[in-house]
Specification:
Mean pLDDT: 95
Number of strands: 6
CATH topology: Rossmann fold
Radius of gyration: 16 Å
Largest sheet: 6 strands, mixed
Order of helices and strands: EHHEHEHHEHEE
Structural class: alpha/beta
Number of domains: 1
Number of helices: 6
Low-confidence stretches: none
Shape: globular
Distance between the termini: 13 Å
Strand content: 15-25%
CATH superfamily: Phosphoglycerate mutase-like
Length: about 200
């Protein structure tokens, strides 16, 4: 059994203005760095073997901050956990997307949720199989984490209207050839975040 704790990166200015980021490489803002530090401090109370991250700078910097807090080596990058590509919708707000692409109109270049699962899930399974019995942090993105949670819970989570906050932690367990969700949407303030699922 291997634990994979997926962390959403800290806040960016585009998060603050509610703009779709996707594959656009938008850096953390100061609030995002503080969120990463708070999550890192909370995670430092658990045992970890390594940390990995999406290569987008907002995830990589979050992972570096967490690694420093948790006493881990520099994060290793995994391209397949980068954020979902949103094509022509990147940089737009929700209202702008609806105006430009009314309901039923496909957004050119947008990656489907099935495509996200097809790249991210095998990458995480490969990582888990290479580290049996270990506890790993993977810093990724809201679109990827939400898609994986939907997939492994058969759409039970996230619930309608439920968001995945910046800096939140989502504990998965890999065993018997499958990835399963153990704990969802933990934040730096949650006491449960301090406790290992193996304890």
């Amino acid at each position: 059994m291997t634990r994979l704790s997926l962390v959403r990166h800290g806040q960016t200015d585009w998060n603050l203005s509610r703009r779709i980021q996707g594959s656009s490489d938008i850096p953390l803002n100061e609030t995002g760095r503080e969120q990463a530090r708070a999550t890192g401090k909370a995670l430092s109370r658990r045992r970890w073997d390594a940390i990995y991250a999406s290569p987008l700078s907002r995830a990589e910097e979050t992972a570096r901050i967490i690694a420093a807090e948790a006493g881990l080596d520099e994060p290793q990058l995994i391209s397949d956990v980068a954020e979902r590509r949103y094509g022509d919708a990147e940089g737009l707000t929700g209202e702008e997307i609806l105006a430009r692409f009314p309901e039923g109109v496909a957004v050119p270049g947008r990656e489907s949720r099935d495509q996200v699962v097809a790249r991210a899930l095998p990458a995480l399974i490969e990582l888990a199989e290479a580290h049996p019995g270990e506890s790993l942090i993977v810093v990724s993105h809201g679109g990827v984490i939400g898609t994986l949670v939907r997939h492994v819970t058969d759409r039970a989570l996230p619930r309608p209207g439920e968001v995945i906050p910046n800096g939140s932690v989502h504990d998965f367990i890999y065993r018997d050839g499958a990835l399963e969700l153990d704990r969802f949407n933990l934040t730096a303030e949650d006491h449960d975040l301090f406790t290992s699922v193996f304890s």
